Amino acid sequence: MTTLLPCFERPGYFADANCKIALVGFGTVGSAVVRLLYARSDEHSLQLTHVCNRRVARKKVNWIPPEVMWTEDIEDVLASDVDVVVELMGGLEPAHELVRRALQSGKSVVTANKQLIAHFGSELLQLAWDRGQSLNFGACVAGGVPVLSGLRDGLAGDRLTEVCGILNGTCNCILTSIEQGSMSFAEALAEAQRAGFAEADPADDIDGFDAGAKLVILARVGLNLELRPGQVTCRSIKNVRALDFEYAHELGCTIRQVSTARINQGKVSAVVEPSLVPKESPLARVSGSENLVVSSGEFGGDIAFSGPGAGGNPTAVAVVSDLLQAVRHRSNGSERPHRPGAVSREITSDLELPQYVRFVVRDRPGIIAALAGVFSAHHINIDAVLQKPGYAKAELPFVITLEPCPECRLTPALAEIANFDFLADTPVRMPILKQELA
Amino acid sequence: MTTLLPCFERPGYFADANCKIALVGFGTVGSAVVRLLYARSDEHSLQLTHVCNRRVARKKVNWIPPEVMWTEDIEDVLASDVDVVVELMGGLEPAHELVRRALQSGKSVVTANKQLIAHFGSELLQLAWDRGQSLNFGACVAGGVPVLSGLRDGLAGDRLTEVCGILNGTCNCILTSIEQGSMSFAEALAEAQRAGFAEADPADDIDGFDAGAKLVILARVGLNLELRPGQVTCRSIKNVRALDFEYAHELGCTIRQVSTARINQGKVSAVVEPSLVPKESPLARVSGSENLVVSSGEFGGDIAFSGPGAGGNPTAVAVVSDLLQAVRHRSNGSERPHRPGAVSREITSDLELPQYVRFVVRDRPGIIAALAGVFSAHHINIDAVLQKPGYAKAELPFVITLEPCPECRLTPALAEIANFDFLADTPVRMPILKQELA
Fold this sequence. Notes:
The structure is a homodimer.
Chain A: E1 19-24, H1 28-39, E2 46-52, E3 69-71, H2 74-79, E4 84-87, H3 95-104, E5 108-111, H4 114-131, E6 135-136, H5 147-154, E7 160-166, H6 169-181, H7 185-194, H8 203-206, H9 209-223, E8 233-234, H10 242-250, E9 253-264, E10 267-278, E11 290-297, E12 301-308, H11 312-330, E13 353-361, H12 367-377, E14 382-386, E15 396-405, H13 407-417, E16 423-431
Parallel strand pairs in A: 1-2, 1-4, 2-3, 4-5, 5-6, 8-10
Antiparallel strand pairs in A: 7-9, 7-11, 9-10, 11-12, 13-15, 13-16, 14-15
């Protein structure tokens, strides 16, 4: 028999009714969620009734009480009387169908599925709103860091104009390895894969799509922006080399995969890309799988949230915090916490930032003149040319830094440069986020 | 005529009814609150109806519409039909009476008054709960940083064991001046007073009572602890000298006023004191009037919140965010967000931390032996003795660092040492928070 006790006794909590929960997806996060629920069972009234997973037999554990139903059929969950479905399957389908049908059948949903919310958040929030259910997704961004509730509730009084952060621990680990171990990108990736920090197919992380999905969600909650994942410009970290860190250090910077969404004069820019950040900036100090989000408000200035961005237990904390919010929602029929209705705006890439462009060339006279000619023709001012000694002439790296220039000039300039036959490698461009963050 | 429009359209917001507001206290924060409300008037349904202040005539401004009532009598506010009273008077009385009577008369309250909530939070939350009203106080701690809502809602799923932070910008400015300008405490204080960072009577700040009140509130919200302000051990920063920074640097540290509340084996320690913190720790990097709070959870690990800890606009953001929460509360009769009922626990001072003790003596043979004898008799191990050259023998400073030892041994040892006639100044003791924060 499950004893039902009042909800967590922290101030701010109260829940009278018990709340039946089905967990769909019993992997690392799912099992951490259940362990957390049982560890705190004397403090809340959340009652696990179903665990659903493919080939569920291999998943069964003896520390879950026998009255919990194990199933591999989501129809069992949908047909049950559970109040909240916790979706931890990941991927777009069948997660999308499950969440849609759960909301349609009068259940609230908590999910940690960032791709689902980035792609279908608008539709699912509208559905939840129409059905009077709650749809919470705090675990989708920055793991255990309560940044979504912070932006939505804690900073509700401000008008936010930018969210910016380090949202992907895998990239952060790889970049740190390249920097500290002077290794190649391939070596750093292999090391991260061996250590379990990177997936066998790491494209989602290193090419920026994982962080891009999180940025879409941050922009929705913090900036009230309706973005499609495809509207986020994503540039891969895979071309970053150890020598880029050497040049970055000369500029007082290091390199991080930075995600930024910004509203400027009514237009939106949303970018995930490797970027030079000043060594003393909070972005530079993020280590390992830590995540950091900084919001900028018109009235309240810059607020930073940081902490563990991944891992079973931190993510489980976010899921259970969302569950407690769903409980409050259910005990207050009239509260519909996530209102749909974010606004679409024109996407612009005309942010003007100083740029770092690294070339590798087969050296011969006239290269700088040729490059300078192209930049000049596109009305882009060169700030400095940096060249470290000790490299072979057949594959000679050097860096040109550019004064702030809009993307609409930089892109065609770089396209023109790509035709030069002296290039031994594709040029790598990164913005320099000087003075962006104190 | 005031147009009433839907509440802020950020996801998560909705408010149908308009909400009448009285502001009591029209100083820096009050006027910033009103400016923010008017700047965003097309996005919410908050309607200012009363401004109350002593000698209100001198306060009148022409940018507030004529239908707003100006008064110096709180009875006008209490007798009105306002829904929410925003208390920005500061001080314990008559703020306490105003808030109590407002709640009794069926109004919700938003306050930025940390002393009020630290002293009377328990009583006022109970009263709000009994009357079905909300009492929000997010602006009491860390200005614009939404740490209270983050601990209460965003981290509801975790069991927090510690909150720690830099909560007083005045102390942070003074300590930074002593460090960077090699000035005396008195000079740094005078400079802060000239610059408007410190009050004419700075005791509340420098002796730790301001941070102590904030710590009481953080402990209530984050740790569900019922603390009285008098239960927080507060040690002043006034005895910190420039030479303490020199020694701290030798130990890889700097000095900050750190506030910590911790639950350990069912007992609580709550301390505000100048502390040595590693230079690479987040605490060391807090600059100026910035605030930082780090919570530690059993499941989710360490989460940091930082941003502007003071100032009219950041504090106004916190007040307006609380107002929006009050609106949601009123549109959902059954929601009673702040449940009273934090738990009292035994206070302990038996945290074991390594310590820094700085002496100034009239030099003569046998001093180290005498001090070592006392520490040894109290079973305290000396870690190192540090002495920088270049000081006069009549007033010779040096430092003894101690291995982790409980307060119940350190206090009597230092009391015994205080009797030595070779002391030229009271010894200064500070904990060394090595490895406390990554």
